[in-house]
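dumping this here so i dont lose it
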């Protein structure tokens, strides 16, 4: 079942000296119950801006959000209900928790603000302990009494996840939830999110720059580059058979001990070709945004932007897969 639908989302920021930067350009996606969608891209591609727009931390310039098929309106009560339904787990668990307050305070407040809040002090305390147990922080009474600085990075992120679960959301936006954690505990946090998604039938958006975790953690992947989606499909299709040159570049940079020498040499050649292509003249408006980093750029890539096919399945925003692009490689 579709929980949250995003149609043609656009976010722009003003720049010094005038002009605007389009951080997200016409993005559309669907988050479904019990399903994980990974949004992948390098720094600056617009991933975190998407999270801020979906959580209504910033107002998009264009586009539409639909929760359970109903458009999200701007009224105060409607916005409150939307924010209860769509919660965020931020990248930095220390910055997202107030160091002056205990874990109990962080979890108790969203419970008290919920329209279905537990009645009575004992019931609220029990709900706080249940949240802590759900993220594997046991004994809960000990963790509830601690402040964020008394916890490890992984424990702080578990508290942040518990806080996001307190309003009983239907959508969870996980913005690089393990990138600031030790490598040894990243898998534990990802497995925790996956378990909670299945137990609570959550629709999960997993934002990351790591293709390896995206493949194993999400059933569907969208790849972003400079504000737009350049490839979309099932995880295995996107990772094992990348179509867009940008996705191939990301895949070649990902460590894989199982690759042969020939595959490693091919990946290195691809990166060298991209590095040489980056020395070309800076991109100007009117063509493919990736063309000056692309080893396969054609004449048409410099004059017309490619479209992302609307057909279901594995799609890529690239002229290499459009029969109308008959120009020879540049």
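and the seq i came up w/
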């Amino acid at each position: 079942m579709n929980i949250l639908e995003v149609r043609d989302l656009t976010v722009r920021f003003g720049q010094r000296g005038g002009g605007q930067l389009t951080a997200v350009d016409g993005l559309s996606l669907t988050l479904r119950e019990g399903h994980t969608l990974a949004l992948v891209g390098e720094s600056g591609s617009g991933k975190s801006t998407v999270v801020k727009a979906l959580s209504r931390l910033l107002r998009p310039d264009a586009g539409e959000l639909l929760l359970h098929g109903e458009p999200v309106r701007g009224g105060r009560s409607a916005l409150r209900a939307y924010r209860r339904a769509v919660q965020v787990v931020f990248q930095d668990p220390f910055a997202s928790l107030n160091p002056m307050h205990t874990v109990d305070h962080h979890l108790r407040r969203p419970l008290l603000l919920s329209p279905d809040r537990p009645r009575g002090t004992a019931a609220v305390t029990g709900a706080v302990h249940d949240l802590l147990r759900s993220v594997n922080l046991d004994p809960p009474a000990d963790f509830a009494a601690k402040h964020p600085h008394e916890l490890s990075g992984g424990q702080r992120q578990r508290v942040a996840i518990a806080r996001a679960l307190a309003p009983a959301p239907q959508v969870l936006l996980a913005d690089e939830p393990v990138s600031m954690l030790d490598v040894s505990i990243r898998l534990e946090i990802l497995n925790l999110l996956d378990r909670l998604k299945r137990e609570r039938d959550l629709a999960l958006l997993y934002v990351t720059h790591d293709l390896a975790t995206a493949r194993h953690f999400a059933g569907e992947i969208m790849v972003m580059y400079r504000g737009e989606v350049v490839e979309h499909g099932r995880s295995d299709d996107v990772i094992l058979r990348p179509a867009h040159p940008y996705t191939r570049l990301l895949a070649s940079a990902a460590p894989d001990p199982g690759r042969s020498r020939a595959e490693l040499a091919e990946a290195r050649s691809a990166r060298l070709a991209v590095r040489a292509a980056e020395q070309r003249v800076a991109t100007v408006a009117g063509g493919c945004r990736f063309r000056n980093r692309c080893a396969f750029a054609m004449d048409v890539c410099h004059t017309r932007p490619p479209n992302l096919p609307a057909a279901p399945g594995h799609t890529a925003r690239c002229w290499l897969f459009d029969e109308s692009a008959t120009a020879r490689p540049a």
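The two ends are 45 Å apart (CA to CA).
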